[in-house]
Specification:
The protein has about 400 residues and is mostly beta strands. It has 3 helices and 24 strands. Strands 8-9-10-12-11 form a 5-stranded mixed β-sheet, with no helix packed on it. A 4-stranded antiparallel β-sheet has the order 4-5-6-7, with no helix packed on it. Strands 13-14-15-16 form a 4-stranded antiparallel β-sheet, with no helix packed on it. The radius of gyration is 21 Å and the shape is globular. The two termini are about 15 Å apart.
Length: about 400
């Protein structure tokens, strides 16, 4: 996911998209968002969209099946929208969260993106809570597909619930309470979410998303503790790894010690209990991440940032995007991108690291994972950011990007 904007455009992530203008957005720029696609011959193509106006798309997955007659396939994407006041324009609501975007092979100059097509939507009213800001419950970050079910995460913002979700295409997984597990035999979404345009502004979109049972289900506004899930990856039907990026705290000179004391940040391993039909956290891997330990980057500023009165040096706060591979002996290798904190004034990714850890699939206790440790494979340089990691065909383990 990216922006159709010139290099080094300032504040492009808060710009409106050309087809979805929020007049209350203080950023007066307009730029499409786009999905980039790299083929086996090394050629890029781009599909533009009016989704994520006022904010940014974060993840995209291609469904290249032709069951719906669309030869180029279509994308499932997640992100956030809106940078203005409440109530939000209908276009912002339609273009938030999970999106269904038809892929195209047209040159960008020929493309004319239309109204965003939502894939799915969730509201805290499903959990019995008072409605939040329409469109902000769907502030999604990580994305994956497993056993024909689309999963994604929410890990920031004061609205909604920071947790793991799935799209219910059967209408049977969460008949009450907004929490459940996918129904066996569910099919992947092949079309956008159907909705009544006349009710979107007041009521939002129809709900077809559930909190995955076992994961947090308390709205952020009333929760005493919060999770910060980002990337997620299934090793098998009973093992789910979730990256927690940390809380991004930079409230004072204790930014390093605060990051080091987090218990949920890092790589969480969740196991499924079929009898209870619920997931349970087995343990969280942190060894080797050196949470809160500052380090230097060649060319990056040192000392104290006069604008924030905090040190420039970055430190790992948790993990963002992940991918993995299971070997024949049950050894799981997870590659991950770190999230960072520093006094630079913009927390998250810049500069960060690519790390990896090996875990035993059969292990379900923290004591059994005591010797497992992350190693750093690459450090981002000054002015560089590592966004995601995935496996492509090539060799026994593939290639990472």
């Amino acid at each position: 996911m990216g922006y159709v904007a010139p290099v080094n455009t300032i504040d492009v992530s808060n710009s409106n998209t050309p087809g979805v203008i929020d007049p209350t957005n203080p950023d007066g720029q307009t730029y499409y968002r786009a999905v980039a696609r790299l083929d086996a011959d090394g050629h890029f193509s781009f599909t533009e969209t009016n989704a994520y106006s006022g904010n940014n798309g974060r993840s995209a997955l291609l469904n290249n099946g032709n069951d719906n007659g669309k030869g180029n396939g279509f994308y499932y994407t997640v992100g956030n929208a809106g940078n203005g006041s409440n109530p939000q324009p209908v276009g912002v609501i339609l273009g938030a969260g999970a999106q269904f975007i038809e892929a195209t092979n047209q040159h960008e100059a020929q493309q004319m993106p239309g109204t965003p097509a939502p894939l799915a939507s969730f509201s805290v009213t499903q959990l019995g809570a008072k409605a939040d800001k329409v469109g902000k419950d769907d502030n999604y970050r990580g994305l994956t597909v497993f056993n024909n079910v689309v999963y994604f995460t929410k890990g920031s913002g004061s609205n909604g619930v920071n947790t793991v979700y799935f799209v219910d295409t059967t209408g049977k997984a969460c008949l009450s309470g907004g929490v459940g597990v996918p129904v066996a035999g569910a099919k992947l979404p092949a079309n956008p979410l159907a909705y009544d345009a006349s009710t979107v502004a007041a009521n939002g979109l129809p709900d077809n998303v559930c909190v995955l049972a076992g994961f947090p289900a308390t709205p952020n506004k009333s929760a005493t503790t919060l999770a910060y899930p980002f990337g997620l990856w299934f090793a098998d039907a009973n093992t789910l790894y979730v990256a927690d990026e940390g809380d991004g705290y930079v409230g004072g000179t204790d930014l390093y010690t605060h990051a080091a004391q987090q218990t949920g940040a890092g790589l969480q391993k969740w196991v499924y209990n079929a009898g209870a039909k619920s997931w349970k956290l087995a343990y969280t891997l942190q060894n080797g991440l050196n949470l809160g330990a500052s380090y230097t980057v060649p060319g990056y500023p040192v000392g104290t940032n006069s604008a924030t009165s905090l040190p420039w040096s970055p430190a790992t706060d948790g993990l963002r995007n992940i991918t993995g591979h299971v070997e024949n002996d049950g050894t799981v290798t997870i590659w991950a991108i770190t999230s960072m904190v520093s006094g630079n004034g913009d927390q998250g990714a810049d500069p960060n690291r690519l790390v990896a850890v090996r875990d035993k699939l059969r292990n379900t206790t923290a004591s059994g994972a005591a010797n497992e440790r992350f190693v750093t494979l690459r450090n981002a340089g000054f002015g560089e950011v590592l966004r995601g990691v995935s496996l492509a065909p090539g060799g026994l383990f593939g290639k990472w990007f």
